[in-house]
Each structure stands twice: as C-alpha cells, then as structure tokens.
Amino acid sequence: MQDIPITVFGAKALESELSKLKNVDRPRIISDIATARAHGDLKENAEYHAAKEQQSFIEGRIAEIESKLSKLQIIDVSKLNQDGRCVFGTTVTLINVENEKQIVYQIVGEDEADITKGKISCYSPIAKALIGNQKDDEVTVKAPKGDIIYVILKVEYI
Q1: CATH class, 4-75 region
Q2: Per-residue pLDDT for 84 more than 70?
Q3: How far is CA 75 from CA 12, 13, 34, 41, 107, in A?
Q4: Which pTM was predicted?
Q5: Using CA atoms in the order 15, 110, 99, 136, what is the torsion angle rounded to 10 degrees?
C-alpha cells in the first residue's frame, strides 16, 4: 500500500467534503428517494431514478474518500527542513528564461492539484524538474511543445 502525499490543507478539504457528503448530501438524497417513491410506479418515475443515480455517486465518492484518507501521508511543509530546496508542499516562484514571465506554483498531491490556483501535482513534469533544486538553479521542463527553461527565484515553505 503506497502512501498518498497531501498537504495539511488538502487533507482538511477531503475531510470536509466527506463530512458534507455524509451529513448533508446523504440524508438529503435519502429524503428525495422517499419522496419520489411516494409518487407511485417506480418504472417510469424519473425523479426516483435520478435520485438513485445521485445516491450511487455519493456513496461511491464517500468510499473513495475514506479509502484515500486511510492511505494519506499528510505533509506539513512548515515543519520540514527548510534548507531552500524544492520539495513537496513548497511554493516556488519561477521565471521563464525565454519570455521572462514569472509564475508561482505550489507542489501538492494529485487530489489537490489545480493549475488555475497555481497548485501542481508532485507527479507533473514541472514538479519533477523542480524537486531537489533551489533558488537560482536553472531547471529544464520537458513539455509537449519542447523544453522550457526556468530559473527558480524563490522557494517558500508556507
């Protein structure tokens, strides 16, 4: 069984989602199913079938989150050895050597990766290129359109 790396924030988000699914969504869907059943013939009852489908989704997601929570390796970046290297959880400011655009990424687990929020998976090509490097290092990222060269401007353990 392989541990799944996740930040403290990511673990709390999963726990919050699980709580909502169990304490809000599950009771609501059970009520919806009971209401739909009261409408009669279940064969042609679209409300009933939609509610059952939603119940199946909710129960599947609950099982998935519970399984993940049992395998998590929660990493608190603020408690890591802050030696300036890029590691899981660090926030890294980069500059693209070619176009001089700055970008900031936090290296996180797959479940919390969201490029629109600057959170990249630790398994992504960018994160793999960054890990182990430090401020002022030049890193090459293998991208579909060709190599991209970045210089690390800052590594933060926040």
Answers
A1: mainly alpha
A2: yes
A3: 12, 14, 43, 52, 11
A4: 0.81
A5: 90
